[in-house]
Amino acid sequence: MIDLYYWTTPNGHKITIFLEEVGLPYKIIPVNIGAGEQFQPEFLQISPNNRIPAIVDHEPATGGTPISVFESGAILLYLAEKTGKLIPEDLRLRVEVLQWLFWQMAGLGPMAGQNHHFSNYAPEKIDYAINRYVNETGRLYAVLDKRLADREFVAGDYSIADIAAYPWIVPYERQSQKLEDFPNLKRWFETIKARPATIRAYEKAEAFKNQTLDIEKSRELLFNQSAKTIQR
């Protein structure tokens, strides 16, 4: 059994999609990041960076005590290796998957995240910041679109590289992007969206979407952390 510490963010969706794809039993433990639940001491023991998702695997492949993992890319890689699914055994194909997994972790996720922040959450609209991250998000969409010009999925067969990228494309409208501008990406996106595991994963998220939050409190918790947040 996998305990999944989760909230309805793109990084959270990565893990539910994977778990639904492989059929690994799991239990969702919601961590409402808008209410500050990511700062609870019990959660920080698992995820010291106070971010979701995180997992605890109560049945590691090698046996012994449970293993906890934080960071969505590390979780995807851990679970793929545990199950032997959605990651190739062949060295060259495996390298392809890992390159694109890290591309998402280092590029698409952070840039789209800054796009979301300055376009939708920042208390003041800064044109330079908005344009910077909208344009960089578009550039990354174009990189992915070009990659998909001659292949169905990012790195051969469907893999954790696709699972990592897909949830960050879902809010494309909030990122000021149009899928029609990226036809190969759009075809890939619609293919993954229609997968039964993807549908089930997003259905799981519906249970948490209607929780009411204090917007100003959420803004303070999510966007105004500093070294003192960790040191106190």
Automatic annotation (TrEMBL):
<dbReference type="InterPro" id="IPR036249">
    <property type="entry name" value="Thioredoxin-like_sf"/>
</dbReference>
<dbReference type="InterPro" id="IPR010987">
    <property type="entry name" value="Glutathione-S-Trfase_C-like"/>
</dbReference>
<feature type="domain" description="GST N-terminal">
    <location>
        <begin position="1"/>
        <end position="87"/>
    </location>
</feature>
<dbReference type="InterPro" id="IPR040079">
    <property type="entry name" value="Glutathione_S-Trfase"/>
</dbReference>
<protein>
    <submittedName>
        <fullName>Glutathione S-transferase N-terminal domain-containing protein</fullName>
    </submittedName>
</protein>
<dbReference type="InterPro" id="IPR004046">
    <property type="entry name" value="GST_C"/>
</dbReference>
<dbReference type="Pfam" id="PF02798">
    <property type="entry name" value="GST_N"/>
</dbReference>
<dbReference type="Pfam" id="PF00043">
    <property type="entry name" value="GST_C"/>
</dbReference>
<dbReference type="InterPro" id="IPR004045">
    <property type="entry name" value="Glutathione_S-Trfase_N"/>
</dbReference>
<comment type="similarity">
    <text>Belongs to the GST superfamily.</text>
</comment>
<feature type="domain" description="GST C-terminal">
    <location>
        <begin position="90"/>
        <end position="213"/>
    </location>
</feature>
<dbReference type="InterPro" id="IPR036282">
    <property type="entry name" value="Glutathione-S-Trfase_C_sf"/>
</dbReference>
